[in-house]
Specification:
By secondary structure, the chain is an alpha/beta fold. It has one domain: Uracil-DNA glycosylase-like domain (Uracil-DNA Glycosylase, subunit E), CATH 3.40.470.10. The protein has helices at residues 5-8, 17-31, 37-49, 86-89, 97-108, 146-163, 175-185, 245-249, 255-269, 273-276; strands spanning 67-68, 74-78, 129-133, 169-173, 202-204, 236-240. A six-stranded mixed β-sheet has the order 1-3-2-4-6-5, sandwiched between helices. Helix 5 (97-108) crosses helix 9. The longest helix has 18 residues, at 146-163.
């Protein structure tokens, strides 16, 4: 099947060239990861057995890298790729109902140039946003183990966050992503007491040693060659119920609810819709 890397960073010209190249290299490393035997076995089994509706398609069947704008101010963080969504298409939140909801909302908010995400090469581009997951492989029953989660965060989310040097806001989809975001981006890498998750919940990621102003605090070298300096990281964490079918079908999550969180993200990034609307 087509390599998602052919399309993942098409809008990379807006960001720092070294950071864009480093993100592309990281994406290739992610897609080759075999660190968790249980997840490797499951994702590859699903790719062979397939769902009847996709029997004629070639599944990606590998870890799914992040996707979006290397100059993103907003990071949208999910749990893991869906077995017959991202694990099939090779792009996060692509080819399933959850992705339909998420990218339609990102389009309404001006972050995406179109409301649909069907397959790699479908023309989707993001501006000002990056979409990723705490765990990069589709897990059995959608439940990664704590060890799988921690390994994936350390190996991939940590360097990915370092390379996304303009981040101001992390939007966590669900409790799992909220906990991961706090452990990765919270004060002292999550050493401070974790705030309570809820839809519309908001927490500062800037501890006393890291003011919330953009670029405040000491700068340090990147681990993956994105250049000699980087800002201090995102300043805010926002919570949203996950865009799962269970939540959307039961109306636990509605379009206005999701739109409200994205609108708040725009306020916190200091980005007006006109300036960052995807084109």
């Amino acid at each position: 099947m087509a390599n998602p890397e052919e399309h993942r960073h098409r809008r990379a010209g807006r960001g720092d060239g070294d950071a864009c190249a480093a993100l592309a290299r990281l994406s290739l490393e992610v897609s080759a990861c075999r660190a968790c035997p249980r997840l490797v076995a499951w994702r590859e089994r699903v790719a062979v057995e397939k769902r009847a509706a996709y029997a004629d398609e070639d599944y990606w069947g590998r870890p799914v890298p992040g996707f979006g704008d290397p100059a993103a101010r907003l990071l949208v963080l999910g749990l893991a790729p869906a077995a017959h969504g991202g694990n099939r298409t090779g792009r996060i939140f692509t080819g399933d109902r959850s992705g339909d909801w998420l990218y339609a909302a990102l389009h309404r908010a001006g972050y995406a140039n179109q409301p649909t995400s069907v397959a790699v090469g479908d023309g989707l581009e993001l501006t000002g946003a990056w979409v990723t997951a705490g765990v990069r492989c589709a897990p059995p029953d959608n439940k990664p183990t704590p060890a799988e989660r921690d390994r994936c965060v350390a190996n991939w989310l940590v360097p990915e966050g370092d390379l996304l040097r303009d981040l101001r806001v992390v939007m966590a989809l669900g409790q799992f992503a909220w906990d991961v975001a706090w452990s990765r981006f919270g004060p002292g890498r999550g050493a401070a007491p974790r705030p309570r998750f809820g839809h519309g919940a908001e927490a500062s990621l800037a501890g006393p040693e890291r003011p919330s102003g953009r670029g405040a605090g000491p700068e340090r070298p990147s681990e993956r060659g994105a250049g000699p300096e980087r800002p201090s990281g995102p300043a805010w964490l926002l919570g949203s119920y996950h865009v799962s079918q269970q939540n959307t079908f039961t109306k636990k999550l509605t379009e206005p609810m999701l739109d409200a969180v994205l609108a708040r993200a725009r306020e916190l990034t200091g980005a007006g819709t006109d300036r960052h609307a995807a084109r």
